[in-house]
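Input record (one chain):
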Amino acid sequence: MITSEGMQFDRAVITGAAGMLGTALLDRQPESLTVTGVDLVDGDLGDLAQAEAVLTPHEPQVVIHCAAYADVDGCSRDPEKAFHDNALATENVAKVCARLGARLLILGTDYVFDGTKRTPYTETDPPHPLNPYGESKLAAEQRAFRALADLLVVRTQWLYGPAGRNFVAAVVQRAKDQGELRVVADQWGSPTYTRDLAPALWQAALAPARGIIHLTGSGSCSWADLAEEAVRAAGLENIKLERISAADWPTPTIRPSYSVLDNRRWLRLGFAPLRPWQEAVGEYAREYLG
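The corresponding structure, as predicted from the sequence alone:
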């Protein structure tokens, strides 16, 4: 049993449990909790009746909602699917949690911002998404807050880790296959390792904090900086890396050029920062990509 300022938790559910972050959460779960993972095969959370059927039998006291349509370009091609899988599904999960009296943590994104600020975004900065993915994730936050009081939104970004597709693994594989890379150098964020993020999310989920918190790996960089560090850590030598502008990379999606998130609220709540991104990328590349 986990106790936090009068709250007692025995049972938790992870949605999107087969995904990269869901897998890390299951792997790093507290020993004293009974944790159940659910995923697409269990039902469509965008349908309220199915969301009820997926969650209710487990009688969760805490739900960490990782399930999402996170293909940013896919969301641009199919905004309706983005809204269904992100906004509507999150709203339904929040409604079920409200009925069950369960606490809910949902994952948010830096893409709720437009990147024009040029300094790290705080939780109180007004959102202004540039693309359907960001719009659907902002709608998810707003709808969840209307449905449920005991809600925590943790916005994070640039996730990578084992058990899923991610930028770090992709650039290392491309470097192995082709010996050269072209990587965008004028978009900035904070790489976040799922195996670092997962235990921090458990801390947050089992604490009394509500509202919005930003949480990422420490430090920031461009995509090109991240690629360079990843291939170096993977032991690849003599890789040609061309730094290009976002305007030179074909994509249907407008992305923020600077969406670094300010983690100071996380620190003020007494939690420890996540590792510097270089250290975490190095560990991931050596252990999983070398």
